[in-house]
UniProtKB/TrEMBL annotation:
Gene3D superfamilies: Periplasmic binding protein-like II (3.40.190.10)
Domain of life: Bacteria
Keywords on record: Signal
Protein name per its UniProtKB record: ABC transporter substrate-binding protein
Signal peptide (UniProt feature, chain positions): 1-29
Organism: Mesopusillimonas faecipullorum
Amino acid sequence: MHRVTAFVRRLLPCCLALLLALGSLAAGASEPPTVRERLVLSGPPAVVSFPLLYIVESGMLADVAKQVEFVRWNHPDQLRALALEGKSDFVAMPTNVAANLYNRKVPLRLMNVSVWGMLWVVSRDPTLQSLADLKGQEVAIPFRADMPDILFGFLAERAGLDLKRDLKIRYLPSPMDAMQWLIMRRVDHALLAEPAVSMALRKTGSFPLSVVAPELHRGLSLHQEWGRLQHTQARLPQAGMAVMGQAFADEALAQRLEQAYATASRWCVEQAQACGALAAKYMDMLTPEAATDAIQALPQHYTSARQAQPELEAFFQLLLERQPATVGGKLPDSSFYGGVAP
């Protein structure tokens, strides 16, 4: 009996400790998640950012942060500042820019790819059927040696064109310059991204500009040319969302942001006019009509970065071979790809 009593006495502190631990866990489980003071979502004036605006307006992250705001970046330098200084938590950007920053040791993870084609050759010629039809002509392209220029050059060569002999490339400082050259009839073709494509078509089709401007057409989409010339699906993994800052260090927060973005992205597709009006409210260079056109023009495909990894790597490999700096000199490793696995 004495031995039993001694055993119980030794066991009792362990039981009490276990009960206390279980009680602490239960209390922790019942506690509401921490509400942060502030979350910053940021992106360019482009379709990839439109779902972020709905997240802010709808209040769908009110249980996550007291203040959720959208900060627009207009220039790559602004994006780099946001990244390097950790001033944003969820950032819309081109996928190759995300790879570049990652390879430069910026702590980020690409969560999804939501834009699978955004580049068009806008033309005065309504009969364009392929890039080969541009032989002997001049094309305005913004930003020399950037991703759109590299992609255009690769596809033009695949179409049988010699870039030095068969085409005259007019490099311009910005998409706005390229649009102006089209409107002023200084070139017949320009490579533009949405929503600049829809803005150009809307502007030249409305009074008073329609009186003097040429009739423009949404000529060739580079994602369609990619599919045709590469014998693959007509889509290119060109832009998505990356987690940074406090979201990079908090996987639960990263997944919550991704879920919110996926929901908002579906809303933008299903309610394109309302989403276009919301975009115009936040981005004064856009009209509701042009923003709506841009939403409806893009391929409707959405996937996690991890699911898109093979297509992303094929895209990055092309850029790496032609202009290594566009992806930071190498392919990103597997930790770059976030979201749900296939």
